Amino acid sequence: MRRTPRANDATTMTEDDAALDATFEALADADCRAILAAAATPKTTSELAEDCDIALSTAYRKVELLSETPLLAEGVRFDPDGDHAAEYARAAAAAAVELDDDGVTFAVDGDGTDPLAAALDASGVSAD
Q: Is-contact 70 110, C-beta < 8 A?
């Protein structure tokens, strides 16, 4: 999976950007939209599957699709026992589509949750 831009970054995609199609595909999918709603706080794929009442295999496929977009950010849930897990959080607070003579522009306001920062803010976790 590819790491998406940090949550505080603004992202603008045009028709020349390969992520534009993936973003529209994800937004057109009901399961992806449910995952985005559930990912208001960082969650593992298993937690997202449970919260969205979808099969775990489906959740993995949808998270993979969303990871190709600036809508979902991947982070790490640190475990004191060393069993770290990938976790995902919504990376966008707002998005806008603009249509003009040059084509489609899709702008994402990246004021969503940054899962890496959230992991480092967890009690007992240090960046040292």
A: yes
CA 7 to chain centre: 9
pLDDT one-digit tens code per residue, 25-69: 999 999 999 999 999 999 999 999 999 999 999 999 999 999 999
Please name which of 47, 52, 40 lies closest in space to residue 89, comparing C-alpha atoms.
40
Both tokens of 62, joined, read 């949808």
pLDDT in tens, 83-105: 888 999 999 888 889 898 888 88
Nearest residue to 13 (alpha-carbon basis) of 2, 24, 27, 28: 24
Helices 45-52 and 56-66 pack at an angle, to 10 degrees, of: 110
Q: Is the pLDDT of residue 80 over 70?
A: yes
Alpha-carbon torsion 26, 27, 33, 35, what sign? positive
Q: Report the distance separating Cα 112 and Cα 95, nearest Å.
A: 11
* C-beta atoms surrounding 22 within 10 Å: 18
